[in-house]
Amino acid sequence: MTPSPILVGITGATGATYGIELLRALRALGRPAHLVITEMGLRTLAIETDLSADAVRDLADHTYSNRDLAAAVSGGSFRTAGMVIAPCSIKTLSGIANAYGHNLMIRAADVTLKERRPLVLLVRETPFHLGHLRLMTQAAEMGAVIMPPLPAFYHRPASVEDIVRHSVARALDHLGLDHDLVRRWSGP
């Protein structure tokens, strides 16, 4: 039996590499990935990486237009194993926290929450002002995991890829997926 897919969202916040690395990790784990990229996510992808939008879409098993509110992932009867938005813009966070599902990204996140499935948000903004913090609190109270992609250094990263991989590994942990992307902490 094929496992339920993980829904991956890429928004216009800086850090498109987090979503790309998540798609690569899911592929390596043999887990199906479904993808939604916002319009600004496509723009940020072009600014921050050398990958085309089609190359990123090819990392997923299925992609959806952010404008398609009738897509399979817009309904709770379509089973997923959870959703990770990597990176998650404040605009998307605001839509989620306020249940304002005007596009597929936010609608799919809302469905993920209402169906009590894991929703992990790699919120990318700094510094946070009070409005950002309140939105994160609202989303957390609804069941989302707020996980800004902050680097850890106990594993002694040697590259940016090591830092990105660590955040992706932590997101996979919140989905309950076994992996060996990074060395786990076992004490000094």
Structure overview:
With about 190 residues, this protein is α/β, with parallel strands linked by helices. It is about 40% helix and about 15% strand. It is built from seven helices and six strands. It has helices at about 15-30, 40-50, 55, 90-95, 105-115, 130-140, 160-175; strands at about 5-10, 35, 60-65, 85-90, 120-125, 145. A six-stranded parallel β-sheet has the order 3-2-1-4-5-6, with helices on both faces. Helix 6 links the parallel strand 5 and strand 6 (about 145). Helix 4 packs across helix 5 (about 105-115) and helix 4 (about 90-95) crosses helix 6. The longest helix is centred in the last third of the chain and has 15 residues, at about 160-175. The chain is globular and about 50 Å long.
Describe the secondary structure blueprint for this structure.
Layout: E1 6-10, H1 16-29, E2 33-37, H2 39-48, H3 53-57, E3 62-65, E4 83-88, H4 90-97, H5 104-114, E5 119-123, H6 130-142, E6 145-146, H7 160-174
Parallel strand pairs: 1-2, 1-4, 2-3, 4-5, 5-6
